[in-house]
Amino acid sequence: MRIESSITSISWIPSEAIEGPSKIPFQFGITHYDQPPPDEIADLETLRREDRFREANELRAFIEVDGDGQIVDFGYLGKGHIGSTTVKLGPAAVRFPAVHLPDIQADPEVGPTSVRFVQTVGGRMGMLIPRTAL
């Protein structure tokens, strides 16, 4: 019998997250804060196309169990999803795709009755934003 499970975490930018000079592009409407993600994700790809998140970690995995309840196979099914940054200058808008860094999937930890999966995803913005020096 095959058993699948998943969980998705989304990184987004609420207005309270930006402070100081980094807030200027947001205040002038050049770029935008993100709307809060929905309580349930029906279509992750649509959210990505609509520029609703920065990164999403879709951790999906499966195990195969034989008739005696022994785990006989397992594996990852999910991946990272990277959004984009939309920049507006007057009536014009340009979308900069983010750079997707390699997903990191740890070797699954196999126990007698379970398998633990760990996955990290990420990327960086496709454009540079000025920041103050530390």
Describe the overall structure.
The termini are far apart. The protein has one domain (2-123). The model has no long low-confidence stretch (mean pLDDT 88). It has helices spanning 24-27, 44-49; strands at residues 2-11, 55-65, 71-76, 79-82, 84-89, 92-97, 99-100, 104-105, 109-110, 115-116, 119-120, 123-124. The protein contains 2 helices and 12 strands; from the N terminus they run E-H-H-E-E-E-E-E-E-E-E-E-E-E. Strands 1, 2, 3 and 4 form a 4-stranded antiparallel sheet that branches. A two-stranded antiparallel ribbon has the order 5-6. The protein has a two-stranded antiparallel ribbon with strand order 7-12. It has 134 residues and is mainly beta. The longest helix is centred in the middle third of the chain and has 6 residues, at 44-49.
Summarize, please.
With 134 residues, the chain is mostly beta strands.
Shape category:
elongated
| Number of strand elements | 12
How does the helix and strand content classify structurally? mainly beta
Radius of gyration computed on alpha carbons: 19 Å
What descriptive keywords fit this protein?
134 residues; mainly beta; two-stranded antiparallel sheet; 2 helices
Task: Set down the secondary structure blueprint.
Blueprint: E1 2-11, H1 24-27, H2 44-49, E2 55-65, E3 71-76, E4 79-82, E5 84-89, E6 92-97, E7 99-100, E8 104-105, E9 109-110, E10 115-116, E11 119-120, E12 123-124
Antiparallel strand pairs: 1-2, 2-3, 2-4, 5-6, 7-12, 8-11, 9-10
